[in-house]
Amino acid sequence: MTEEVELKWISGFWRRIGALFIDTLILGVAGLALGLFLESLFVQMGGWGRLVGFSIALIYFGVMNSSISGGQTIGKKTLKIRVVDSNNSPINLGKSILRYFILAIPFSLNGAQFSNEAMLSLLMYPLSLIIFGGLFSILYLYIFNRITRQSLHDLAVGSYVVNTNVEKQATGKVWNVHLIIVALLFLAAAVVPAFTSQLAQSEQFKGMLSVQSALSNDQSVAYATISTGSSTFSSTNEGAKTTTYVSSQVFLKTNNVSDAELARRLAIIVVANYPEALQKDTVHINLTYGYDIGIASSWSNHAHNFNPLELQSAE
């Protein structure tokens, strides 16, 4: 005789993660299908393409986690869990949309491209608060709030994720220590820009910004990033060897990632606008073409390496 395991009303961590994985997979397939027909449009949108995926996901989760669909997305139906309020009833559409908005905004903004330096400087503090404060708070509560299993978005609208066909059970309250830690995470996120702004005033950082701007002004380039670093390789014959480099990832408007002449022209721009590159061993240009709409992405890449001293003579 098989003994049945009694389910608690509040859903466990892994069921929620499993449901989210299924829903993310479904949205990802839908995003890739759209990309087959709208690739050029998504490429032209650049960083704004994330709004496409965000809007699709907002409709999907907003509608299906609400009373319209019984509080269940496809993933939740598969794993027999749903979103409800404290009365064990599905939440209304407005609360469901707000719930997903709070959950998704920090993740959607994380890694977003801001080509306008003035706008980035103006939004630095609120962006840090939303992205880092929201992101770390959500992850912290997901993992450590084991009593109610409510994360930031659930606490905001008073929702719970529960097992279906299980009667409501009494739940405890969120520990005050969790709320204190969340407050500290938001406080830390609010002060981070005060330190990063000092870095932005350094001569090296300003020089790299000028390179980024010069690359972005090229007619073939949609957006570019710039960084410096070093890598160490070890071999039995030669021992350890360290190579220094200036690296730029260049997002192209058309799929010319294999164009060596284009890569060379961009490498010359790097050397012309960043004299410190002459002290490096390599100028690395990674030509990239593709799109990222949040729920799906598709990229083509080709790496090109140049000797900076040879580039100087070609200016």
From TrEMBL:
Primary localization: membrane
Keyword DNA damage applies: no
Top-level taxon of origin: Bacteria
Transmembrane residue ranges: 20-42, 48-68, 97-116, 122-143, 174-195
Segments forming domain RDD: 11-157
Keyword Cell inner membrane included in the entry's annotation: no
One Pfam family from the record: RDD
Topology relative to the membrane: Multi-pass membrane protein
Localization in the cell: Cell membrane
InterPro entries for this protein: Pra-immunoreactive, RDD
Keywords noted in UniProt: Cell membrane, Membrane, Transmembrane, Transmembrane helix
Protein name from the UniProt record: RDD family protein
Organism: Halomonas dongshanensis
